[in-house]
C-alpha cells in the first residue's frame, strides 16, 4: 500500500469514473486500474464495483475510502505544517455575500494581511449564495461565505460546508405599531402587514414557505439596499423579516423607532452562515490558512 493508491481510490470515488480520475490526476487509466486492483488484492477486499457505467464503492470499499481520505488529510496537514514555516505567497479567492455584513470579514482579512503581507486575498462580493456556490464548485473561488438554508446543499457532495453561526428569523417594525406591543409574533399576525423584504434568495425562499402555508401576503417592496429597508421600517411604511445575525451586524442602522421582535411558530426554523470549499484534500496551505483564520474570527 502506498499514498498514490490512496489518492487514486479517493479520486475515483469522488468522480465515479476511472477515466475522469485519470484526467484529473494526469495518470493513465490502466495505471489507476492496475493500482486499485493491486490494493484490493493486498487488502483482500473489493473496493469498487466496476462497469461501463462507472466505478461504485462497495460497502467495505466505502469504509476504506473514508480512511484513505482521512490519511491523506493528515498528510496534507503535515505538509502544510512544514510549509507554514516559510512565507506564504500567492492568491486566495474569497466569494462573499452582501446580505451578511462584510465589515467583520474585511477586518479579519486585513488582520490576516498583517501576518502574511505577501499573500494576496481577492474578495468578490456576490448577490446570491448560489453564485458563491457556483464559483467554488467551478474553481472561480477558493472559499465561499454563504447562507445555508433548507436543502440548498443537500446535493452538493463535492463541497465541504462548515457552519459558523446559526440564526433565527426576527421581525422589525416601527416602535409605535401594534406588533411592537408583542414580545413575539407568528405568521398569522403579519398576514395583513405590508412587507419590505431584502431581495435575496434566502429571504424570498423563506417568505414563499410562509405564503404556501398561510396564503398570500402584502409585499410592498423588495430591495438590496439594507439601509433603505431599515429607514422604511423606521418610518412605519411596513415591516421586514431578517435573521438575527444580519440585524446584529447592522446595529448602527437601528434606533429607538425600530422594534425587533421574535418570530415564532414557523417552519423551517433556521439559517446558517458558513464557509464552503471543495472537498479535495489537496487544497493549498494558503487556502487552509485563510479558511481557519476566517472561521476563528467570525465565530468569536
From TrEMBL:
PANTHER family: HTH-TYPE TRANSCRIPTIONAL REGULATOR, HTH-TYPE TRANSCRIPTIONAL REGULATOR GLTR
UniProt-listed CDD domains: PBP2_LTTR_substrate
Keywords, ordered alphabetically: DNA-binding, Transcription, Transcription regulation
Family affiliation: Belongs to the LysR transcriptional regulatory family.
Residue stretches making up the HTH lysR-type domain: 1-58
Protein name according to UniProt: LysR family transcriptional regulator
The organism of origin for this protein: Siminovitchia sediminis
Pfam families assigned: HTH_1, LysR_substrate
Amino acid at each position: 500500500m502506498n499514498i498514490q493508491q490512496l489518492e487514486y481510490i479517493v479520486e475515483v470515488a469522488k468522480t465515479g469514473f476511472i477515466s475522469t480520475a485519470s484526467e484529473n490526476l494526469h495518470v493513465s487509466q490502466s495505471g489507476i486500474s492496475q493500482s486499485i486492483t493491486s490494493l484490493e488484492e493486498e487488502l483482500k477486499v473489493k473496493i469498487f464495483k466496476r462497469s461501463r457505467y462507472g466505478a461504485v464503492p462497495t460497502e467495505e470499499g466505502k469504509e476504506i475510502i473514508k480512511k484513505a481520505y482521512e490519511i491523506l488529510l493528515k498528510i496534507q496537514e503535515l505538509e502544510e505544517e512544514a510549509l507554514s514555516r516559510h512565507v506564504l505567497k500567492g492568491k486566495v479567492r474569497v466569494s462573499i455575500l452582501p446580505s451578511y455584513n462584510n465589515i467583520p470579514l474585511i477586518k479579519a482579512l486585513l488582520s490576516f494581511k498583517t501576518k502574511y503581507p505577501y499573500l494576496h486575498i481577492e474578495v468578490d462580493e456576490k448577490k446570491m449564495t448560489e453564485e458563491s456556490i457556483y464559483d467554488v464548485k467551478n474553481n472561480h473561488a477558493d472559499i465561499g461565505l454563504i447562507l445555508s438554508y433548507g436543502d440548498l446543499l443537500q446535493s452538493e457532495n463535492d463541497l465541504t460546508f462548515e457552519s459558523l453561526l446559526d440564526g433565527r428569523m426576527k421581525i422589525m417594525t416601527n416602535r409605535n405599531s401594534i406588533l411592537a406591543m408583542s414580545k413575539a409574533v407568528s405568521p398569522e399576525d403579519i398576514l395583513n402587514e405590508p412587507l419590505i423584504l431584502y431581495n435575496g434568495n434566502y429571504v424570498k425562499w423563506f417568505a414563499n414557505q410562509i405564503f404556501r402555508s398561510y396564503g398570500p401576503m402584502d409585499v410592498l417592496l423588495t430591495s438590496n439596499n439594507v439601509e433603505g429597508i431599515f429607514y422604511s421600517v423606521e418610518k412605519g411604511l411596513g415591516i421586514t423579516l431578517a435573521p438575527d445575525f444580519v440585524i446584529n451586524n447592522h446595529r448602527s442602522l437601528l434606533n429607538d423607532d425600530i422594534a425587533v421582535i421574535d418570530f415564532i411558530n414557523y417552519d423551517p426554523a433556521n439559517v446558517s452562515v458558513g464557509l464552503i470549499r471543495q472537498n479535495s484534500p489537496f487544497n493549498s496551505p494558503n487556502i487552509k490558512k485563510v479558511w481557519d483564520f476566517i472561521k476563528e474570527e467570525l465565530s468569536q
